[in-house]
Design a protein that fits this description.
It comes from Aotus nancymaae (Ma's night monkey). By secondary structure, the chain is mainly beta. The protein is built from 3 helices and 21 strands. Strands 8, 9, 10, 11, 14, 15, 18 and 19 form an 8-stranded mixed β-sheet that branches. It has a 6-stranded antiparallel β-sheet with strand order 1-6-5-20-21-7, with no helix packed on it. A 3-stranded antiparallel β-sheet has the order 2-3-4, with no helix packed on it.
């Protein structure tokens, strides 16, 4: 088990099912955000590999104080970190931890991915990323607008009134509340969504980064090519 607080750095696993390795990446110069792809040739990343473990568990519960932190477990699952049962989602394409998302909805209406789409479950991405067009629609739904620094800002007062954005995955719903997808720092609030076009042969590709994973205990099961998800405790 690896543990520690995340006030000054980010601890990320990625990119996933690549050969016989799992990788634990700690960026040295980019606190709070990790590269989508981390490897031993990346000058800003330190990489450790482990070729024997079948499970990686990642409850990314970030805290604002110095006494609590996030935990990454190699080789097992600790049920005290989640509630209910793990729902297992098969990996749809080997290479990343890529899965199929059924839909993305708000107030019961599809706002993206209406006919299904592909997504990467990635601890190495801080935000929740998707193709630029549907992400632009989501930014509009939540009232985000670009400021002079290029940030998508949202009124902090909107957090209490905005609805959950629900990701339906393998028939199960995973709501992400406004308190998760709107990021607060000091007196400012920004959107946790980011537009990013990633061309693949599978259509639009989303990245379920830390904004999503903070809400759901995540297990990467390499032996069975599946990802387990359950609400964090």
């Amino acid at each position: 088990m690896v543990s520690g607080n995340n006030s000054g750095s980010a601890h990320c696993m990625g990119p996933g099912l690549r050969g016989n390795e799992t990788m634990f990446v700690t960026p040295q110069h980019s606190p709070g955000k990790c590269p989508v792809k981390g490897n031993s040739e990346d000058a800003t990343a330190h990489v450790e590999t482990n070729e024997t473990k079948e499970f990686i568990s990642s409850p990314l519960t970030f805290h604002s104080n110095d006494e609590s932190g996030s935990v990454v477990m190699f080789g097992g699952v600790d049920s005290s970190y989640y509630t209910g049962s793990l729902n297992w989602v098969p990996v749809s394409v080997e290479g990343y931890w890529q899965i199929t998302v059924d839909s993305i909805t708000m107030n019961g209406e599809a706002i993206a991915c209406a006919d299904g789409c592909q997504a990467i479950v990635d601890t190495g991405t801080s935000l929740l990323s998707g193709p630029t067009s549907p992400i632009a629609n989501i930014q509009s739904y939540i009232g985000a607008s670009e400021n002079s620094d290029g940030e998508m800002v949202v009124s902090c007062s909107a957090i209490s009134s905005l609805p959950d954005i629900v990701f339906t995955i393998n028939g199960n719903q995973y709501p992400v509340p406004a308190s998760a997808y709107i990021l607060q720092e000091d007196q400012s609030c920004t959107s946790g969504f980011e537009g990013m076009n990633i061309p693949t042969s599978y259509g639009e590709l989303w990245i379920l980064g830390d904004v999503f994973i903070r809400q759901y205990f995540t297990v990467f099961d390499r032996a069975n090519n599946q990802v387990g998800l359950a609400p964090v405790a």
